[in-house]
Predict the structure of Acyltransferase.
Amino acid sequence: MGPAKGLSEVLKEARQRGKPTSPTQKVPRSGYRYDLDGLRGIAIAFVVLFHVFVGKVSGGVDVFLLLSGYFFLGSQLRYADRSDSSINPWWPFWRTLRRLLPALVLVLGVSMAVIMLWVPRLQRIEIANQAVASIFYVQNWELAAQGASYEAASAEVSPFQHLWSMAVQGQFYLFAIVLSMAIILIRRYRPEYSAVQLATPVLAVLTSVSFFAAIVWYFVDQSVNYYSTFTRFWELGLGALLVLHAPRIFLTARTKSILAGVGLFMVLSTGFLMDGAHTFPGIPALYPILGACLVILGDGKVSVFLSSKWMRWLGDIAYPLYLWHWPLLIIFTAMLNQDEPSIWLGIAVIVLSVGLAQLTNRYVEKPMQQQGKRPVFRESRSAEALKKLRGSRPARMRAYAGAAVVVVALALTSSPQLLYQRVLDTQTSDLDPAIYPGALALTGFDAPEVDPQPNPYVLADTVSPAWAKGCMSVFGDDPSELMPDNYDPEFCTFGDPNSTVEVYLVGGSHAEQWMAPLDSLGKQHNFKVIPLVRQSCPTFAYELDGIFSEECIEFNEKVIERLAEVQPDLVISNSTRPLLEKGRGIDEVPESYITLWDFLEDHNIPFMGLRDNPWFIEPSGQGWMVSQCYEEERSLVDCSITRDNFYAPVDPAEKELAARNNMLAVDTSRWFCPDDLCIPVIGNIYVYRDGNHMSDEYAQSLAPFLWSNMRRLLVA
């Protein structure tokens, strides 16, 4: 018998034969963990119960993400360990789409159809955009871009808010497929390395970095932190590391039984101990995640319970149950004009969600799933698939169903444009002043009794002309740029572009909302209007209040430079606002505003200051959709505030501006609060598009009032 071969010789011969010989263990292949199906089911059940009755994050979604990493990446890496594995990524991608997309598109399609037909308060462009984002598994980034924090159920919350987790899951699946393909490719040339060896360091580093990022980003922006794939990765990555290494941890049966019991308690108690919306996926998220890890490591009676028939059934319907429950809860809350879902509505939603989840699982999920085994190296399934399509009725039915999914998905992608077109139609329609006099009703004009216009739900998506045209700087735009400089000179010039009389509108969105009447007045009285406006950025020479952003300060430096350069005939902006940032809700003159007036006085530039319109603010700090309130309640009392809830007894800017040459304070309070009540409808026109911005239609009706003041500064 010859001498034993060394390890290097064995590996060399293996490479020459093209067979992977590895001295290390491969990805463990164990029996299917039915108890983890039960864990997934009970985790989602708690998500539903907490969404419906508690209004808090239960931690169930975090457990769901951990299990997604455990199951999906485990299956990909087991395949990557095979000697005959294929580098073609189409099969796992197609299998994943067939498993996830049909149910998702069904829920989105039904939800949007119901919304468009019967729920006007949810017919918002932002919600339609979220439906599209959900189809492409980027809903988490859409919510982050919209600045939407994760809220408890109410009539104002998006019905697709919960799909952020599906987006994170889908993005992780793409990563898992790419990682497994890379491992297969590496093992083609270095078969001595197993998938465990190659994947572990990558997952360990990314999981650690992600967890650290989640801790840090909590202090930077918790809203983004909650939705971000990068800060959520550690939850899925830990699940993937568990599937690679947990089977190698040997514990006694008693220890496993204790671990499973403790773990299940941790998972189920999370929502009672903390609200993850405010802290996850940071350190507190370790509590439910480690609880799930203990269940994975455990065994015994808890595992038997989780593997029972009913728990496995709950696991089977977990995905469609998660998809259905939230849209149903929000849609019915809005349809029934409830601010928050009642207990009886919550019970009805749960019953309906379970029924729909069962039907979806039976007639959509399972029939559409890929049943065949994964193809191996150089194996083609195309010819076999075409043969089945021609000769098998079930295969044709699946193809028709797949085509239906595509059609519905394409229809959903058009929903934002349909709603946007409705906004354009509203903005281009002219209201008959004899029927809709708006502010003219304040002068005694007798208006007939008709339903107010325009549609208050469409108003919520409208913006004023400069913003709509792209001539207003918004969040994310370079604050060192003035938007009119990015276009031809006449593009962002409103009013009469050929006039030599220049009026500059400066400030934030509360100044820009006056653009509609200024545009029409400019055409009528021969002056041009140029907006130098930025979202949430009043104009000042120096920031003295300590509440405005660095971007706003930089933007105002450019505005002041431009005003000094052009010496306009008149500058218009707001003269007051509430300092909500300092807990003060009554209008006042911020100290920063006075620095603008000092600058203009030094340069002998006339100024007209418009007192701010009322802000309707909920106790939570959110804007009150006051026009929608009246549409639903038909009560001026219930949808109004008294004048002294917002306005000081005397215009705070009057004394300051009256002492300066060519400066005028315009007290607009009487335009919004007749008889000391600030109301949502005046002259059959809805006054507000949201909680603190005027509708263009009402602003237009104020044009005569505006001109009676402007002419004192523009006409010699």
